[in-house]
Every structure is written in structure tokens, then in C-alpha cells.
Recover the amino acids of this structure.
């Protein structure tokens, strides 16, 4: 699938602006961003539910920009699932095939195979209202996949599930996608979902793509302060770049190493992930700075320390509860500590 400079405007306001993407066959691709960034509008334009103001949508090389949803080789799984409560699970899955005039024997075979793939064969005669949220989600997925579309669109389908079930369904959904080999376009505002499931993802903001790449590229090498702060947790320390250091306005200079693409005197943000910062135990080549512990947050396997480097500048440090598993072994508020990081683990964002 290819999106070429597609835009959607409402009067003078753009929901999506000049967006271009290429999706490979069999790819699990996620559109990620906060509410109002344009990800759902983009999905609706791909599905034919919303017409673009301008631009072209190509599916398998064919221009489908102005085709209605039922004429596109695309199916959609909505957040609400939209199942028919008066039909059985099997009849829900078979609904699209019957409407398309597929022979009865083939319908029975394809529905049976798909229910087995989503582990619902034993529930084929049940009504949707008797199923759990995860089971209903799998019925909706089976109903969409049984039609064998080129592209499956998923509009935050896991949002209504509790945390444990959502994580289970993330793994199952990715496994199903690999088995089927269909291109998935997944819309979510949950960074963990996108990182866990995607082959590639696009981070959107205000109707355009801030960065597109593999989960590792986007998380480890964010292209902007927005991406760094939106993808998980990142410490963003403002300052001025001077000769291999980020000099804070009211505080210490933070060593970052030479950055050939950034001129001295440039206003920057220093980005460091909390899990990349070391507390107390350092390696010889680490950059180091002192700070004061302002808060300690225990979270079972980890403890997060909020450390003030200067007035109004606090960084988050994440530490595994291994060497310091007892409360009395951890640092407490008011203590001065030293933190450090490897130069390759920090980014200087212009």
C-alpha cells in the first residue's frame, strides 16, 4: 500500500497534512500518536470511510482513493468490535462470506479454519454476549481475516481490555498476523503496544509524521524532542551546546561528547532514557554529574529515583531492584548522589 501526499482538511484546519507512507506486503505497521494527531483519520481514509481532501491511495498498485469501503480489498476491526448479538460466533465470522456469495461448503471450511486459528472452535455456537472481552475481540478479528483482504485495519482494538489481557492479546495478534501474512495497519496511542507488535511504526503529531522506522530506531534514536518524550519516558534537559557539553542555564555542564552536526551556541535538549542512567556504580568511560534525590518510587522489580540536577531540572533514573532490594539499601530524599551514562546513550536534539 502507498499513501501519496494525502491530506484531510475541515475548512482551514488540517487533520492530516501531506502524509506519505509505503507499506510492504505482510508488514505489521502501526500509526502511533496522541489524541487528535490524525492517526484515526488516516486509517479511515485508507478504509474508504473518509475521503481525502487531496492525495492518492494505492493498494497493490491500483488507485483506490475514491472507491467506497465495500469495493476495496481492505477490512477493518473497530474498537467496539461491532458484532451481531443475535448471531452465533460462527455466523458472525461467516457474515461477509455469505454476503459475497461464497459457496456454502467453502464458507464452512474457511470459518472452521479461522476459528481454529483464533482458538474459538469450541465456542462456535455461542452468542457474543456470553463471551469475554478477549474472546469477542478474537471473533471480530476472525470475521475480518476470513475474507482474506490485502490489508487489515485495526482501530485501537485492544483499548477496552484490561492490562493483563491486553498484553496477552498483543502476542496472539502478532502471531496470527505472521501466520496469515496479511498487511496490518494498527492504530494506537499506547507506546508499549506499538513497540511490542510492529515491524515499523510512524509517530504522528498534528497531522504529520514526526518519525517512521523500526521500533528500535524510533525508541533509541528519536528524531525530535516530541518523539523522545512520547516514546516511553525520556529525560529532556534544556541547555546550550558548547564544545562537547550541554551547559544548563542554572546548573552544571553535562558531558555529551563531540557533536559535529551541532554548532556551538545552539539551544538543545539533552535526551537520556531513565534505564540508561547509572546510579553510584560507574564504568570508567561514563559521563558523570551530581544531584539530589527528591523522590523515590518503588514499583516491585524496579525503583525510580527523581534527582534534581538544578533548580527546576529533575531527571528520572530507573534501577532494577537487584543489589538494593531492601528499603534501607536505597537512597532517600535529600541525599546527594552521583549519576552517570555512556556517551552513546544520550542524544542532543536541536
Amino acid at each position: 500500500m502507498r499513501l501519496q501526499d494525502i491530506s484531510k482538511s475541515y475548512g482551514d484546519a488540517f487533520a492530516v497534512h501531506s502524509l506519505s507512507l509505503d507499506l510492504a506486503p505482510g508488514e505489521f505497521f502501526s500509526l502511533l500518536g496522541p489524541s487528535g494527531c490524525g492517526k484515526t483519520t488516516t486509517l479511515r481514509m485508507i478504509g474508504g470511510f473518509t475521503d481525502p481532501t487531496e492525495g492518492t491511495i494505492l493498494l497493490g498498485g491500483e488507485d483506490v482513493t475514491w472507491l467506497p469501503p465495500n469495493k476495496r480489498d481492505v477490512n477493518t476491526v473497530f474498537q467496539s468490535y461491532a458484532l451481531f448479538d443475535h448471531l452465533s460466533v460462527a455466523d458472525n465470522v461467516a457474515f461477509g462470506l455469505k454476503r459475497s456469495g461464497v459457496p456454502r461448503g467453502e464458507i464452512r471450511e474457511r470459518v472452521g479454519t479461522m476459528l481454529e486459528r483464533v482458538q474459538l472452535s469450541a465456542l462456535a455456537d455461542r452468542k457474543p454476549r456470553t463471551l469475554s472481552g478477549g474472546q469477542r475481540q478474537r471473533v471480530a478479528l476472525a470475521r475480518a481475516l476470513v475474507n482474506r483482504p490485502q490489508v487489515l485495519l485495526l482501530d485501537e482494538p485492544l483499548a477496552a481490555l484490561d492490562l493483563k489481557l491486553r498484553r496477552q492479546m498483543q502476542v496472539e495478534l502478532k502471531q496470527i498476523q505472521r501466520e496469515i501474512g496479511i498487511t496490518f495497519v494498527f492504530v494506537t496511542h499506547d507506546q508499549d503496544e506499538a513497540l511490542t507488535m510492529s515491524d515499523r511504526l510512524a509517530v504522528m503529531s498534528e497531522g504529520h509524521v514526526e518519525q517512521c522506522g523500526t521500533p528500535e530506531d524510533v525508541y533509541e534514536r528519536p528524531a525530535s524532542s516530541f518523539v523522545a518524550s512520547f516514546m516511553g519516558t525520556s529525560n529532556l534537559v534544556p541547555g546550550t551546546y558548547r564544545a562537547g557539553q550541554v551547559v544548563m542555564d542554572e546548573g552544571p555542564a553535562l558531558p555529551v561528547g563531540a557533536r559535529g552536526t551541532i554548532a556551538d551556541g545552539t539551544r538543545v535538549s539533552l535526551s537520556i532514557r531513565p534505564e540508561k542512567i547509572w546510579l553510584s556504580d560507574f564504568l570508567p568511560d561514563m559521563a558523570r554529574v551530581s544531584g539530589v534525590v527528591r523522590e523515590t518510587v518503588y514499583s516491585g522489580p524496579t525503583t525510580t529515583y527523581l534527582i534534581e540536577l538544578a533548580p527546576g531540572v529533575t531527571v528520572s533514573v530507573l534501577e532494577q531492584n537487584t543489589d538494593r532490594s531492601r528499603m534501607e539499601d536505597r537512597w532517600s530524599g535529600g541525599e546527594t548522589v552521583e549519576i552517570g551514562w555512556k556517551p552513546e546513550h544520550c542524544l542532543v536534539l536541536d
Q: What stands out?
A: The helical segments are 39-47, 89-99, 104-117, 133-145, 163-180, 191-197, 215-220, 225-230.
